[in-house]
Each structure stands twice: as C-alpha cells, then as structure tokens.
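re: ur msg from earlier - yeah i can do the S-Hydroxy-Glutathione complex, just paste it... oh wait u already did. ok heres what im feeding in:
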Amino acid sequence: MADEVILLDLWPSPFGMRVRIALAEKGVEYKQKEEDIRDKSPLLLKSNPVYKKIPVLIHNGKPICESLIVVQYIDEVWNDKSPLFSQDPFERAKARFWADLVDKKIYDCGTRIWRTKGDAQEQAKKEFLDCLKLLEGELGEKPYFGGNNFGFVDVAFVPFASWFYTYETCGNFSIEEECPKIIAWVKRCMEKESVSKTLPEPQKIYDVVGHFKKSLGIK
Ligand code: GS8
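and the outut:
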C-alpha cells in the first residue's frame, strides 16, 4: 500500500517550509492541509497535543511534530535519495548544532525586528547579524552548509530567506551589505527546485506581516 503523507501547514511558516523542502528533495508526494492558527483543526489538536503548532507530518496515521525532528524523520524514512546528513557522526553532530542555533536565534531575533522599534529593535538587529556572521563563518567557502551537498542546516535555515525582506524593511538595514556570503548562499539554494518552488515571494510575507501587525495594533 502506498504511503499516506499529510502535512499540517501554514504557508508563511519557515518551519512548515523546512518540511516542504525536505519532502521535495526526497520526491515524496503528500497532501498539504493549511491550518488556521486562530481556529485550529481537531486534527492538529489531536496530532500535536503538547504544542498545538504546525508543522505536523502525519505518516500512515502517525503524527511527527517539531520541524527539525520531522526533517530528520523524512531523511531516515526516505533514505534512498538526497541524504541530508553526512555519514560522519561528527559532521552530523555539527549540523544539528548549527540547525539548533538557527532555531534559537534567527526566528526569535527576526520576530523582534519586525515587532519592535527603537532600542529593542536595534538590539534584535545586532543579535540577528551576529548570528548571521557566525553562520557565515561556518559556511566558509563551501557551496552549502552540507558541503558540496545541500543538507540539514541548509533545509533548516533557507526558509528564513523569504523573511529577509521583511526584516530588512522593518529594521531598515541590508543583510547583503553585512553578510554577502549568506546572500550568495541563498541565491545558490534558490537554484534548487525544492527551494525555489517552496519559498513564497518575500513581498507576500511582508504583506501578511503587515496585516498581522495591524491586528496586534503595532504601527
Ligand atoms: C515551531 C513551530 C511554530 O512556531 C517547530 O516546528 O520547529 N519549534 C516549532 N509554529 C507556529 C507557526 S509559524 O510561526 C504555530 O503553529 N503557532 C501556533 C501557536 O503558537 O498557537
């Protein structure tokens, strides 16, 4: 029997994009169900009772939560093509370390950039750029974080590129000026269909953030 793969998702979510990219890399067919975060479906509440967040991958009825865990699951189950990890345990540990940094810093700082103003925003921008510079150092001269192959850290980080325009416009700064290698890496990743077909137009993200800010009463 064919696998049944369902993704509970939300289109602007960088976490959901990670899963979409991993599934595309592996050529897995799936059904995407768009959630309404203000009116979560019974399926989402049942599938992720702890955090009640998207993305959730439901594979043959079994739910897997937390995007980085889902991406690792996909890599293990569909292991016949496009491996996302090196064979070397040290390289694998390093990849998990950098993906964890992306999780801890990029989303949080990015959100603070578009949600705040003044000193709080300056602080968020500084932390964001410090983190990007660390990532730039880790990338070095490699084409991808995974070396010659697009890998786990690439999948974890590249969705945020669709949010860069929002961060830059709200924070009035240029990522390319500060971290040109990161932007060159984004362009390289965008040459992959799994990425270019997944990432939404930056303007669409900016517009949805604008609506969200309005609903929160943020100018
Ligand atoms: C984060 C998922 C998340 O924040 C992961 O999967 O990696 N650590 C998790 N999902 C958000 C949408 S994207 O901002 C979400 O589902 N929020 C619903 C809520 O907070 O109620």
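cool cool. The chain has a mean pLDDT of 97. ping me if u need the other ligands too
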